[in-house]
């Protein structure tokens, strides 16, 4: 193809069915077996009410079984993909053991009820992920990235320990379910310490701004590990705040702060992504923004929306990482390359996109009831409208089909997608042990909506490309520490 400067440098793909080590084969089958069992347990949980528990130690509720099914599915995909990706590596067995250990740890974490068990598994989850980031320990960059991630994860675990200790002291109870049941009595300095520590621990784990550095420096991890990280690990912040929902919903001011924190990261992630050129780096910045959306939904009191978001984001981001190699092309610069930033759509396109976005928001309101009253549900619906607008504009702008067919297809695809999202959202909300905690609309909610809309419009019209100062500032903010950056193939040739 004209303009391409790359040429094949490898032989045939390895046959994963021949001479494959025992451990990768065994743990891959084991993970898929866990997925099958998790689906059976999920079906049983839907049909049966109540919580299955070992009192004072573990409690299996709707959130637990839902996350079991999701985590084992993602893990099964990653394990199967890694059979070929890691074939021939001297660290193949080590990688598979770590990936399986991460899966089991997460499954145990979402079932843990005793605060000591929960905190210990949170720390273990971080340490295993740091090991996956530094799988190729012969690379000094991988060792540096793993060390950075480890420091962040330890800080998150320390904050969680502070929160759990404060809640134990405040309630005299050592189980998450017990603390939730006693949340009406929470308040005062101990509660404030616990709530702030919980939010900070979630921010670090989900790589929210300004704690996104560990995520952007983790690109030395094998691509399957990155998929597992972005599809599962970073979502743990939303799981943490959902699990401790009775604690953080005690005070509406804290919930407003969580909304502001999530919105700042959602906008910040979009800004950072706008200047990234590296494929995996762009996906990492996207994750920062998406985790901001997830945390913002928690702050709005819609825990079902947050869990739905993390699951759908997990599917999307796992696919994006595992297929990231297909997006890499070595091409020569071309003056005819398509440039879409700042492009103004036609009048017809503008009308189609606008009406599709508004129709999507209206449909979401009809199906879920969110946005029908003057509470935080209105802001949730606003972001649904913005998401539909963005998707519709992207389809109108990038699709090469004739205009009439393109404009007709946009609502025909977008509106059924909203129906599917609303149905999934309602189903997941019914499974969760916590309900909706919508709050009254405030001036801050309006500020968040206006600010995010301003950031979105600014990026779409290419403001960051017209300001050198802003562009350089954003570019610098996306750069990981220099000692984690791979600069030549000689530095990471493990053979």
Tell me what you see in this structure.
- With 495 residues, the protein is mostly helical.
- It has two domains: 29-323 and 477-488, no CATH class; 347-461, no CATH class.
- Helices cover 68% and strands 1% of the residues.
- The chain is built from 20 helices and two strands.
- Strands 1-2 form a two-stranded antiparallel sheet.
- Strand 1 (52-54) and strand 2 form a beta hairpin.
- It is globular.
- The relative contact order is 0.10.
- Mean pLDDT is 81; it is low at 1-11 and 336-342.
Describe this protein with a few key phrases.
single chain; 495 residues; mainly alpha; two-stranded antiparallel sheet; 20 helices; 2 strands; 1% strand; disordered N terminus
In short:
This protein is an all-alpha fold. 68% of the residues lie in helices and 1% in strands.
Element layout with pairings:
Blueprint: H1 22-47, E1 52-54, E2 58-60, H2 62-85, H3 92-109, H4 115-133, H5 140-171, H6 176-181, H7 188-205, H8 213-216, H9 223-233, H10 236-243, H11 245-248, H12 252-273, H13 279-299, H14 303-322, H15 347-368, H16 377-398, H17 403-431, H18 443-460, H19 463-466, H20 468-477
Q: Estimate the helix proportion, in percent.
A: 55-70%
The secondary-structure element order is HEEHHHHHHHHHHHHHHHHHHH
Q: What characterizes the major β-sheet?
A: 2 strands, antiparallel
Based on secondary structure, the structural category is mainly alpha
